[in-house]
Amino acid sequence: MIVIRNRYTGEIMLKIDSLVEADLRDVNLACADLTGANLIDADLTRANLRVANLTDAILTDADLESADLRHADLRGANLRGANLSHANLYAANLVRVDLTDADLRGADLSGADMRDIDLTDANLEGANLICANLRRANLRNTQGIHAFNLGRDVIIAHASQVQIGCEKHSIDHWLEHYEEIGDNNEYTAKQIEIYGKTLELIKLLFTE
């Protein structure tokens, strides 16, 4: 029998024989301690996992569509092939998370800490990445966005909008104001030059 407790109070929240392939749709596990939990193929559709501790949890192929993961701690978790479409991951800790081949369409990742994350082959179409920290992220073959990892802040280009850090503007606005924005955000002159050249490249991609 697996006993899940509140990470702060120790209160018992759920008793279950196994979490593998478990039907946990609409479950309320806000603030739950799920450290290292094996949730392979679990159905967590619309689950409330706000502020939950999911460090090192195994969630491969799990269904987390429309789940609430705001401020959740998922450091080191394995979410390969997971469905996180329309999930709310605002300000979640996603450091070193494996999201290879995950579905993140329409997900809210704003303010999330995504350092060293693996997003290989993930679908990020329509995802909100404003203010997300993507330093050292693996963005190889991501779908739905064009990503340019230049070291400090990743440039995210999709549709007619381009995002760098917490700034999101049209490409024309960027090309007109990138030097001023860079200065205001304490970029070095060399960094501003590199980002400027990349923005010119993105302009070419958009006008093809």
Key phrases:
208 residues
Descriptive report:
This protein has 208 residues and is of the alpha+beta class. It has two domains: 18-144, Pectate Lyase C-like (3 Solenoid), CATH 2.160.20.80; 153-208, no CATH class. It has two helices and six strands. The strands form two sheets. It has a four-stranded antiparallel beta sheet. Strand 4 and strand 5 (161-164) form a beta hairpin. The termini are far apart.
In short:
This protein is of the alpha+beta class.
User: Which strand order do you get reading across the main beta sheet?
Assistant: 3-4-5-6
User: Helices and strands, in N-to-C order?
Assistant: EEEEEEHH
The CATH topology of the largest domain turns out to be Pectate Lyase C-like
Please estimate the helix content.
10-25%
Alpha carbon gap, first and last residue: 58 Å
CATH architecture group name of the largest domain: 3 Solenoid
Q: Determine the oligomeric state from the structure.
A: single chain
Average residue-wise pLDDT: 94
Number of domains: 2
Content-based structural category: alpha+beta
Strand content: 5-15%
The geometry reads as elongated
- The CATH class of the largest domain, by name, is Mainly Beta
> What does the largest sheet look like?
4 strands, antiparallel
| Total beta-strand segments | 6
- Give the C-alpha Rg: 19 Å
Please tally the helical runs, counting DSSP H or I stretches of 4 or more residues.
Answer: 2
Which spans of ≥5 residues are poorly predicted at pLDDT below 50? none
Look at the structure and name the CATH superfamily of the largest domain. Answer: E3 ubiquitin-protein ligase SopA
